[in-house]
Amino acid sequence: MVKLIGYEWRKHFLKKSIIAAMLLFSALNVAKIYSVHEGSSLLSKNVTGPAWKELYWKMYEEFSGTITDEKIEKLMAIYRPLEKQTADLTASTTYRTSNTYLTNVYEDWNFFRFNYVNPMKYAYDYKAYAHGVVTAAKDNMGFYESIGNSYEYQKNAAIAKLFQGRSITSFSYTEMYKYYVQYDFSAFLALLICLYGLMSVFLSEKETEMDTLLLTTKAGGVKTVWAKLMASVLFVVGVCFWFWIVDFVSFSVLFGSWDAASSPLYVLEDFIHASLNVSLGQYAVLSALVKTAGMLVFALAFLLISCLFRNALIPFIAGLFTAFGCIYLEEAYMGSGRVLLKIINPFVLVVNRELFRKAEFVPLMGYPLPSYIAALLFAVAWGVILLCAIMIVVRKNALRKGGRKACRYGCMR
Amino acid sequence: MSLWMYEMKKMFLLQKGLLFIGLYFVLNLASMMVLDKPANPDIEMNASQYLAYLNQVQGPYSEETERFFSDEAAKISSAKVALQKVTDDYYDGNLEEQEFLAASGPLENILQNEKGFQLIYDQYTYIRENPANRYFLYTNGWDGLLSNDSLDFLWLLLLLLLIAPVFGFEYESRMDALLLTVKKGTRHHAIYKIGLALLTVAVLCLLNAGLRYGFYQFKYGLENGHYPLQSLSYFGTSTKNSTLFEAFLWVTAGKLFGSLCFAILILFASVWLKKYAATLFSSTAVILLPYYGMHLESSKYFLPGPLGFMISTGFLRGNEYKRNPFKDQLDVVFREVSLSALSIVFAVTLCLSIAMLVMILIRRTNVWSAGKRKLWRRASRLMLIFCMAMFVLSGCTSSGRTGTSDIYNYSSRQSFENERYRFYVDQTDLKNIRIVFEDKKTGDKGNFVRNPMPSLTRVENNIYGNGMHVYYMKYDFDKSGFKENINRFSVIEVDTTNFQERIVFEKKLGTGKSTILGLVKASDQDWKFFTAIDSFFLDEHSFYFIGQGEIRRVDRLTGDMRVILRIPVLRSVAFDGRTIYYINEKSQVVKYDTKTDSETVIPDLITRDFVLTDTELLFLNRKDQQKIYALDLRDSTFRKITDVPVQSIHCDGQSIFYVNKEDLKQYRIDRDGQNDTLIQN
């Protein structure tokens, strides 16, 4: 079987065109990440100029690491005068006076506000906020218990447990992760390559009319189908991981740091209500795995569509249409409180920040199931349905061609 | 049979080209009908008022126009004051009815079009920036036709479906080698194929352009095509001299050229790669990757290839900037494509296309092939499996709830009472103003909104109640950048038997940076309206939102929104489940039937404040020194409740609370006029 998988893998995926596409798309991906950095990072020369970057890393040595009262006082000693001077917008904008770090006092104020004061304040206040969430959730538990709403009781119990003991103790450079978790272009590239690569898996034999011949061989029936499926899975996993690694390395190199890997996920302000207590580094790994799971569902869908036709023309178009349909629906429900509509779409696994940025639940027989588990279950359900459909289609084909003869032969005997 | 006919038969019948073309036009038309929203929905919702003004200023800006706007603005503001004065005089007995009607009629006519004036004034402020090439015109039609650079995804798929098999069909069946044995099967036949493919694309592209033109002409109207292109704000900074109609022709020509180049690219890829999958993949990648991958919107127009031309509106746009929030400078968000750059891009694209054509002819190919198998039976069986799966996965819920509605009063939008609880906005702690509920039996008080994670959410202090269901509004934010942005507006239903929440209405307001490919775009107009909502109420079929001096109705099923009432000065509004009561400019109470969309003025009732109860309309009688009166809604009889002039009134159950106009103290009185007691000094 392993040999068969290896053979199928080499036959369908070890192609010059796929390797060329991988290389070209990887280069495009890096270029796109570069444009994200240049267009969004507070330390890029396009957004703020080179001086911010230089000053940031100089100050970072002083303020990074464990947040202490001493560091806060030191930072506020720099920031408070700036805040006062800029409060009524009448401070001088004279270029590079002796008491400014950057071009003028306003730029200094913006620099410290966005790079140090706001993130450090958020980190410092988070413990109290999380405590407030726990208190409110426990209060809710008492309330819902009194009115007999057991679903909300359990949901609030889960929230209280999730937020219990949360705090951010250290300050680190998180901008890289901020944009990394929002980056989807590589997933789109991987999706296109998978669509292309998977088209030939079931069609290559059909196009050359060899599918009938295949059924006459020893391992030509179900065994070959499984080998094809396993090879496809390996291909999709390989493509995905290649792109996720390119993403992570490119973001780390271009943003200049992945220091925050050990910081908790909720250090990102958009993830203030993160549904998991994991570090950013762990999240990067988890996200890669979940994204790959989402891509596998799409891969099965592409394979199923290709099984239905004799050439790649309509399957490719239909696959592309399906992918865009799912992306459209996912965009329409991103940020929505209608959790079920959001998670039923397998593309939610690919943009999994939607699952992990907020603790959301869906009711399952009165029990609050975290949305990310529900989304994974839905993806598994989609996967099983698609797999069954593929097996039905392929087996039907085998039965029709081989089965009738076998039946006739059996009857004659 | 000639080669042309044979190839046409193959393309349109054997390869089901006609079916795909028909499907494309049906889907395209359906998507335009369903998804097209006016660029400025306010204009459509206030069409008559807007057009009344537009007809007076249409065309170029002039000093006369300038005078018209200043005169009209003055006229409207003085009309407002004058109408108020005339109304006051009439109700104070200083004017006879005839005199009042004679004086108020023209003033009302002026004020009738106030919203229209606001819309045309917005246009005026845009035109005034550069009056030389910006004209007054109705913009929704031309904006819909020209002001977007969206890639027509269905058109892309159609071209792939039609063009890829032109040569790919023979390669698929390995019959291309036989071509050499046919008399006219070499270059001659390839030219026929290419000619037919390009001709088909050209005809379809022109038909498509005609369809779009016809659709916008029919839906909005495309008058004044000779006005300058810069009259549309989308092209406001453009330096290109063109009229709107010329711009449409240029865009169509660009799309035609882009589509032909794309067709040539597909033909070339199919001849070169000889595989459907590789052809489709490479052709799609050439279009989609730059379209979604380019950071700067204008970059794709500097890239030689079919993409820029297929969305050619960008060639006509001007430089656009946005202010850098960190430094005192403007950052480019769109860089204008100069004529020289356009010429170079065009020339390079043309040369590439010609080179590809030559390459195709060098590798000329041809042969006919056999038919396809029908797989519909198998597909239908699979469809059944999918339908079942969808049913299992999605589940289904319904919440049909009919019956009587509780009364909504605008003045009581912060409170509601049902059998068990009283809900109100607790303002005792100014740092923590919140909606609370109070158990009527036990007096227990608690937070009504029980979300334990309040960050990135803002709950508005307005509620609407109907029986055991109480509704509130909230905004959700995202902080994917360094600033918080409103992402969604929602109306939440709370079943107060168990305080279970359910989202009944949602509107996406933010696009933000966190979208995947930017396929779903939120409207600026929606953002403006939904972030300025004062209050709301609802019935089984619709939501009603009050804001910006309007009441808008949103259909629960379709999401279609329209203005049903304009109330410039919002004093009192009430809703009983079917009828909306409001006060017009003459201080009369008007009943608006939401089922029939008809209005009726309640006779002999003049007021500026009223409260609707289940059987009566309590009001401060303007004709009797603002004393509280009650109108019985069943027999239309009036009843006086207080003998003192009143400043303001609100009702809570059987009690009326009012502020005495003479001593400015708060009193409580029963609805039957008994037990008048002072409650607050």
UniProtKB/TrEMBL annotation, chain A:
Keyword annotations from UniProtKB, A to Z: Membrane, Transmembrane, Transmembrane helix
Transmembrane segments: 185-204, 225-245, 283-305, 312-330, 372-394
Stated name of the protein: Uncharacterized protein
Native source species: Candidatus Carbonibacillus altaicus
Automatic annotation (TrEMBL), chain B:
Transmembrane segments: 12-35, 153-169, 190-211, 247-269, 276-294, 339-362, 382-400
Domain Prolow-density lipoprotein receptor-related protein 1-like beta-propeller positions: 612-679
Top-level division of the source organism's lineage: Bacteria
Keywords attached to this entry: Membrane, Transmembrane, Transmembrane helix
Name this polypeptide is given: Prolow-density lipoprotein receptor-related protein 1-like beta-propeller domain-containing protein
Organism, as annotated: Candidatus Carbonibacillus altaicus
